[in-house]
Write a structure and sequence with these properties.
The protein is of the alpha+beta class. The strands form 7 sheets. It has a 6-stranded antiparallel sheet. A 6-stranded antiparallel sheet has the order 19-20-30-29-25-26, covered by helices on one side. A hairpin with a 5-residue loop joins strand 21 and strand 22. Helix 7 runs antiparallel to helix 11, helix 11 runs parallel beside helix 12 and helix 16 runs antiparallel to helix 17. The longest helix has 38 residues.
Length: 804
């Protein structure tokens, strides 16, 4: 159904050019419509009160029957040239419908080329040219019927409308409410409804319904004021029960495919077919379709198709599965599949079905008292998805070859919708698997902190996105905490999230400051944007990120943000507070340097990192206009649920419950980190002068400390490491020079100086007197490295502590 506002000028002929005019018995125009203005170019003020013959480009009588008028004969149908502004004239085909009560007629008209030319489509235009019966009801502004009329006598197939009644008096309340809502919309906006297919329940027989082609236009007086609505009904072919002659291909295109859920799409397809075209419809699909995979070819007997949908849901089936509310339909391969292998629809009567199934007929659920069945393959993009079967029961007319052709057309359209749903299921599951594989473990436990994370996809799993969190152990017992959010949803967002997470882990190993790391990630995202296709520039590579490094030795946490929501800190016994972080630009927007903020992160404190999906909606799932308000709600929830005795995993789920978040509109990622500290008795540090004699003092201090810790087994190797690192610092760096030993599962030896020079390990030649220091350190330690700070650099080496 195409709708256009009448206030945008002349309505396009996409509305089939349907023009409606109400005239009295003298042919005087009483009511005008926006579509009539679109057809002729004249306004209601120019036409109302004048004879309808004034619209003719020339006087032209018409043979045949005429509406009952006193002065002006109005032929019931014909083709006439109409005056048009500004084109001069336009050929139109019209049909007049005499009205009951006060009399008069409603004239419907459309451009001739839309009725008789190759552009003609639909029952409405066919009715204008005399190929169907038109019934009209005029409603007042309260939507009560004031007049009715029909183009021919006979029994009406549709709701029996009479003056004074409402739709709710002649059809089911839910159907009446739906149609009246559209009528009110037409009345209030002036936007017509054209060729809407409406399904109205037949009173007293809920299993049957009318399927009508329905249109509505607003009626206006000479001053352009709304006076009511004209409803136009085109009946189906009266030789068939209601709905038998409906345009199945069009009905399928209009009503199937709104959802990307396989089961819902299958139900939409079945509901288009029954009741109406058939009494019962069933959609059976291969198991692979439900899983989002490509189904295998139908190649062997005994193959079963799983039931996806039936319509109506309360249809009687024999036999019914014991204890089942609905029949379990499974299509035997040698029945529907065999008849569909040729790729065409087939029609079978009851005897043919019995011959095909033999003794097994009593085993398979079949519609009770069925007379005829038509089966069509559901094939799309070269894949055989399943079988569509429709049944007529009782004394209904059997299916014909023409019915099979129409069913085949509907099956082709329905199969495309089903395959779209299957492909979406495949991509959605792939994105979900990718997302889960790329996310870190939900909980981690390190000397620096324990962490727990929670991830919720958008829509309760309907839309996987690119939100993530991470906890990255760093040298010297430090811990990097990360939260990020890639713009968009789907597999592209998940893949981009994986690339960014990998990049951040790699850069974190370089022990960069948070602001420098974000700068380098921003450069990477910009390169990704330049490499990607133009369509994905602002969809795949847009992202925000928060990066924090916690040092359990100093008890400090340094944080930098790339357009990401600020973290929230909960200190023991205190209310949660939002950390004041200077947000830099999101990726890949550049040009502004990132800044870091350092906070005290005392043992027992909890730091919450999260994505914006957690703060963008309230408990009633309404979007929050003020993000700061959402952040404060989260802080209040953390204050309420953070308790020393509760695990972080329980706390995370309690936060979501406190906020009322179950199926968020956007992805939600939440990571909680509870700080720890290295005990002072597990650390020792010294300062030495820039003198080679200090090397011996460093070795002696190291030996004493290791002896006090009971680590005499590491004394020899550690003294060598200390000797080489302190010697390098004395020879090549600037004071002050310091040494620190830290133990917690591993032994870390750190030597620092104030020089920014980069140490390089090289392979010394046999004749070289030096150059072997870092090589020796690398051989004696499990790993080593160097990091830079504002006051110089630190070279560290790590050794495992032997188990007692």
């Amino acid at each position: 159904m195409t709708v256009s506002s009448p206030h945008d000028g002349a309505l396009p002929f996409a509305l089939d050019g349907l023009a409606a005019v109400v005239v009295d018995n003298r042919g005087t125009v009483l009511r005008w419509t926006a579509t009539a203005q679109a057809l002729t170019g004249f306004t209601a003020g120019e036409v109302c009160g004048r004879s309808v013959s004034d619209l003719l480009a020339e006087d032209r009588g018409g043979p045949g029957a005429a509406a009952d008028t006193e002065e002006t004969l109005i032929p019931l149908a014909g083709r006439v040239p109409l005056r048009h502004r500004p084109q001069g004239t336009i050929d139109a085909v019209y049909r007049a419908t005499p009205m009951d009560g006060p009399g008069g007629s409603v004239i419907l008209a459309a451009p001739a080329q839309r009725v008789s030319g190759p552009e003609r489509s639909g029952a409405l235009l066919g009715a204008l040219s005399g190929h169907g019966r038109i019934r009209i009801a005029l409603h007042d502004t309260d939507l009560a019927v004031v007049q009715t009329g029909t183009t021919s006598a006979g029994t009406a197939h549709g709701p029996e409308l009479s003056p004074g009644c409402r739709l709710g008096d002649v059809t089911a309340p839910e159907d009446a409410a739906r149609v009246e809502a559209l009528l009110r919309q037409v009345l209030s906006t002036g936007v017509p409804v054209v060729r809407s297919t409406e399904r109205l329940a037949v009173p007293g027989d809920p299993r049957r319904e009318w399927v009508l082609c329905w249109s509505a236009v607003r009626l206006e007086d000479e001053q352009g004021r709304p006076t009511g609505v004209a409803s136009v009904f085109v009946d189906p072919d009266r030789t068939q029960p209601p709905g038998r002659r409906v345009d199945l291909a069009r009905e399928t295109a209009e009503h199937v495919g709104d959802s990307l859920d396989v089961l819902r799409t299958a139900q939409e397809l079945a509901s288009v077919l029954a009741p109406g075209f058939a009494d019962v419809a069933a959609v059976d699909l291969a198991q692979a379709v439900f899983d989002g995979e490509e189904p295998p070819p139908w190649s062997h007997d005994g193959e079963l198709l799983r039931a996806a949908a039936t319509a109506p849901r309360d249809a009687a089936w024999t036999p019914r599965s014991p204890g089942a509310e609905e029949p379990v339909l499974r299509q035997p391969a040698d029945f529907g599949v065999t008849h569909c292998r040729r790729g065409e629809a087939s029609v079978l009567d009851r005897d043919q079905v019995a011959a095909a199934l033999g003794l097994r007929m009593a085993q398979w659920p079949l519609p009770e008292d069925f007379r005829s069945v038509a089966v069509a393959p559901l094939t799309a993009r070269g894949l055989a998805l399943g079988v569509l079967s429709v049944w007529r029961v009782g004394d209904a007319e059997p299916f014909t070859a023409a019915d099979a052709a129409r069913l085949e057309a509907a099956a082709a359209r329905g199969a495309l919708a089903l395959d779209n749903a299957r492909r979406y299921t495949h991509e959605h599951r792939a994105a979900g698997v990718l997302q889960q594989r790329l996310l870190p473990p939900s909980t981690t436990d390190t000397p620096a902190a324990e962490t727990a994370g929670v991830y919720l996809p958008a829509g309760g799993g309907e839309a996987i996105g690119g939100d993530w969190f991470d906890a990255i152990p760093l040298p010297s017992f430090r811990l990097a905490l990360v939260a990020g959010d890639v713009v968009g949803h789907g597999i592209h967002a998940s893949a981009t999230m994986g690339r960014l997470r990998t990049a951040i882990q790699t850069l974190a190993d370089l022990e960069l400051d948070p602001e420098e790391l974000l700068t380098r990630v921003g450069d990477l995202v910009q390169r990704l944007a330049n490499e990607s296709e133009p369509y994905y520039h602002d969809i795949v590579v847009g992202a925000t990120c928060l990066y924090a490094v916690h040092d359990p030795v100093s008890g400090h946490c340094t944080i930098a943000s790339a357009g990401h929501p600020p973290p929230i800190l909960v200190r023991p016994g205190q209310p949660a507070e939002v950390v004041d972080v200077s947000p830099g630009p999101p990726f890949p927007v550049g040009g502004t340097p990132y800044e870091s903020t350092t906070i005290d992160f005392a043992p027992g404190s909890v730091l919450a990192l999260y994505t914006d999906g957690l703060i963008e909606q309230d408990r009633d799932e309404h979007e929050v206009a003020d993000i700061d308000q959402g952040t404060q709600r989260l802080a209040a929830a953390l204050t309420s649920v953070c308790r020393p005795g509760r695990t972080l995993a329980e706390t995370g789920h309690a936060v979501l419950a406190e906020l009322g978040i179950d199926a968020p509109r956007d992805d939600v990622a939440l990571m909680l980190a509870r700080a720890r500290a290295i005990p002072e008795e597990h650390m020792a540090s010294w300062e030495f002068p820039a003198d080679l004699e200090a090397v011996a003092g460093a070795r002696e201090a190291t030996a004493r400390q290791l002896a006090s810790w009971g680590l005499d087994e590491l004394a020899f190797t550690t003294e060598l490491i200390v000797s080489e690192l302190v010697t390098n610092a004395v020879r090549h760096a600037r004071p002050p020079i310091w040494l620190r030993l830290i133990r917690d599962g591993v032994l870390v030896c750190e030597v620092g100086d104030s020089s920014p020079t980069q140490p390089r390990m090289r392979r010394a030649r046999s004749t070289d007197e030096g150059g072997r220091g870092l090589f020796i350190v690398a051989q004696l330690s499990s790993r080593w490295g160097c990091r830079y700070g504002r006051d110089g650099k630190t070279i560290w080496a790590e050794q495992p502590i032997p188990r007692a």
